[in-house]
Write a structure and sequence with these properties.
single chain, 315 residues, alpha+beta, five-stranded mixed β-sheet, two-stranded antiparallel ribbon, 59% helix
């Protein structure tokens, strides 16, 4: 009987919600749909009990309504069904509503997550678009100084610059890259700057082999190195040394760029566009689990550090 009540509740729910493409069947405003469903369950109980009794008493010598005990049992079972079945139907309706609300909440969460992901991707592309011209303008400005000064190395530097930009520019628009690719650009950039000022710039690059395949936003290290050249080495009459170190420890990647230039107090204006966009790009890729720090060194110089989760780049 209870299974029949549940079946009727499900069937009435389907019927009342509409089975055609024209949409759900409308109910009067003063009549709630769940009331009709509960009433439908209550109406179907007596015929169901009657059908059950007719089946189980088919072999009796007389009809069950002539047997007082059978009649009492029928009345008791019908009354119990009328009392219990509507509550079973109400509980089923509540569960159905709860499941529908959960499905709707999950759909909203998925849609919101997708919109947030698209917004982050758009913001990251916008930041990448800002980094590309900023980096190119700074590099071309360095080469321009060679041309204006009439340096004999201007043509060689321009050839190196062209080859370097052919490899670097396409990567500026990628969403992520590997530290191995990043270090290739860093070495090429430092060699280019060393050709511009061979007596004022020395550099060294040290990296753990386990860090090469880790992912990072494009121009992460390049931004730090370019900032050290522009704000540390260039303003210094004596020049200086740049050291790039990358290591992996306890599931995190730690990279630092150290220069012995003029240092932060005399660098003129503090962090520029490159460092500001780098900090935001790190947050978009790694969230609050990435950090960018700047500190001064004694007697002069600066250290730029980047720390983020060590995540392998997808193949």
């Amino acid at each position: 009987m209870w299974s029949a009540a549940k079946w009727w509740s499900g069937w009435s729910s389907w019927w009342l919600s509409g089975s055609s493409s024209n949409g759900p069947r409308a109910c009067p405003r003063w009549l709630a749909r769940w009331v009709l469903q509960v009433l439908a369950v209550a109406v179907v109980v007596p015929p169901t009990v009657l059908a059950v009794y007719l089946v189980i008493t088919a072999g009796d010598p007389e009809p069950f309504w002539r047997n007082p005990l059978r009649v009492s049992g029928f009345a008791l079972l019908t009354l119990t069904g009328l009392l219990v079945a509507p509550w079973v139907a109400v509980a089923a309706l509540f569960r159905q509503s709860e499941y529908a609300a959960r499905r709707q909440a999950l759909a909203f969460d998925l849609e919101r997550s997708e919109l947030e992901r698209r917004a982050l991707d758009s913001r990251l592309r916008l930041l990448q678009a800002q980094v590309a011209p900023h980096f190119l303008f700074n590099t071309l400005a360095n080469v321009r100084e060679l041309v204006v000064s009439g340096s004999s190395q201007a043509a060689t530097v321009l050839d190196s610059l062209i080859a370097y930009l052919r490899a670097a520019v396409p990567r500026l628009h990628e969403s992520t890259t590997t530290l191995e690719q990043e270090l290739q650009l860093v070495r090429a950039y430092l060699e280019l700057m060393h050709m511009r000022m061979p007596d004022r710039l020395q550099f060294d690059v040290q990296v753990d082999a386990g860090a090469l395949k880790l992912r990072c936003p494009p121009t992460t290290l390049l931004t730090l190195v370019e900032n050290a050249v522009r704000h540390g080495i260039d303003p210094s009459e004596e020049g200086g040394r740049i050291e790039v170190r990358v290591r992996v420890q306890e599931g995190r990647c730690h990279a630092e760029v150290i220069d012995t230039g003029v240092g932060l107090p005399n660098a003129g204006g503090g962090p520029g566009t490159g460092l500001s966009t780098l900090r935001e790009r790190l947050q978009l890729v790694f969230g609050s689990d990435a950090r960018l720090r700047l500190s001064s060194l004694a007697p002069h110089g600066a250290r730029a550090e980047v720390d983020f989760p060590a995540q392998a780049s997808p193949a």
